[in-house]
Amino acid sequence: MSSTFFLQDSPESEDVLRAYGWDEAFDDAFTAHRSAGLTPGRVARVDRGHATVVTADGWLRVAWSTADEPPCTGDWAAVRPGDQPELVALLPRRTAIARSSASRTSRPQVLAANIDTVVVTATLATDAPAGRIERMLALAWESGAVPVVVLTNADRSRRPAGEVRDEVAALAPGAETLVVSSVTGEGMDVLAAVLTGTIVLLGPSGAGKSTLGNALLGADVLATGEVREGDGKGRHTTVHRELVRLPGGGVLIDTPGLRAVGVHDSEAGVQQVFAEIEELAADCRFSDCAHETEPGCAVLAAINDGSLPQRRLDSYRKLLREAAWAASRHDARLRAERENQWKAIIRHQRATYKFRDKQL
């Protein structure tokens, strides 16, 4: 476990909150909480039953109840100060990265909230799996933040870095794709120039997220570990999502490596990742074309002439199916919750009538 929080300067005024992303919109949303005597703070880390929150008066370790929507790193919260400070409420999230939970339930796992830039990382020391990059990009676009693809370990690249960059850029229409090395400093100035606001690092173990984060921070704040030579996989040296202030402005959230990247209700994000397929589909003869055997399908025509790889279409279909499945599960859960609420109301009414009849 790292000690990130204790390596940062203690905040002394509300100006520090602005350094952590506080703005007029959040201030307006906090009006009712302020009237209730609560204090704003940003969640820097979440542990079991407690959260570490940065406020204008300092760092607080606050308790939080098991609410329907637990806090996550990056949330802005209303805190009741005192001897036993408590997290009372969360402000509406402006953006959020969410993936399907590991339990495969309908509830998503929120990885980070109120983010502005998502750094999708992949290492040049091994072959970057195209499907994984596409999945992480779908999560990034769906979050509402701006994705940037960063290919790390340029000093250890197995292939010409420019060649790999061009291949990955083809997977990420609309997003910048950069090549960097935390060891030599290659590309770090360009990366620092494009990162803004609250930045989250996303990628598998061994992709160099924490090493990249330390380079941006200018200090060895985040824990790092070795990777296996054979497959480039690393240990989960980052075990919590932590929010750290960057010396040049903005804040950084490091995340544990993601073994599984399940898309959750991310159809819009998938469509953004595969923008060239969406553009081709607009020229299909039928508006509901499934791009399988239909005549006049512009997507299949692109497959046949080689301008669209079959792997790309297969990945597009797979992610759309997952997104549709997640959406249906979410809708089913909401229906079940509404039914349970009505059942509870009916039980309460029956108990009330029964009690009233006994009093007559």
From TrEMBL:
- Amino-acid positions noted as binding Zn(2+) in the UniProt annotation, renumbered to this chain: 284, 289, 291, 297
Q: How is the cofactor bound?
A: Binds 1 zinc ion per subunit.
Q: Where is the signal peptide?
A: none
EC annotation from Swiss-Prot or TrEMBL: 3.6.1.-
Per UniProt, the keywords (alphabetical) are: Cytoplasm, GTP-binding, Hydrolase, Metal-binding, Nucleotide-binding, Ribosome biogenesis, RNA-binding, rRNA-binding, Zinc
Gene Ontology cellular component annotations, sorted alphabetically? cytoplasm
Question: Which biological process terms from the Gene Ontology are attached to this UniProt entry?
Answer: ribosomal small subunit biogenesis
Q: What class of enzyme is it?
A: hydrolase
Where is the protein localized?
A: Cytoplasm
Needed cofactors, names only, are:
Zn(2+)
Q: Mind listing the GO molecular function terms for this protein?
A: GTP binding; GTPase activity; metal ion binding; rRNA binding
Report the residue ranges that make up the EngC GTPase domain in this protein. 113-259
Q: Which PROSITE patterns match?
A: ENGC_GTPASE (PS50936), G_CP (PS51721)
Locate the residues binding GTP: 203-211
Q: What SUPFAM superfamilies does its record include?
A: P-loop containing nucleoside triphosphate hydrolases
Ranges for domain CP-type G come to 103-261
Assembly and interaction partners: Monomer. Associates with 30S ribosomal subunit, binds 16S rRNA.
Function of the protein: One of several proteins that assist in the late maturation steps of the functional core of the 30S ribosomal subunit. Helps release RbfA from mature subunits. May play a role in the assembly of ribosomal proteins into the subunit. Circularly permuted GTPase that catalyzes slow GTP hydrolysis, GTPase activity is stimulated by the 30S ribosomal subunit.
- HAMAP family per the UniProt record, alphabetical: GTPase_RsgA
Family statement: Belongs to the TRAFAC class YlqF/YawG GTPase family. RsgA subfamily.
* Protein name listed in UniProt: Small ribosomal subunit biogenesis GTPase RsgA
* Organism, scientific name: Actinomadura logoneensis
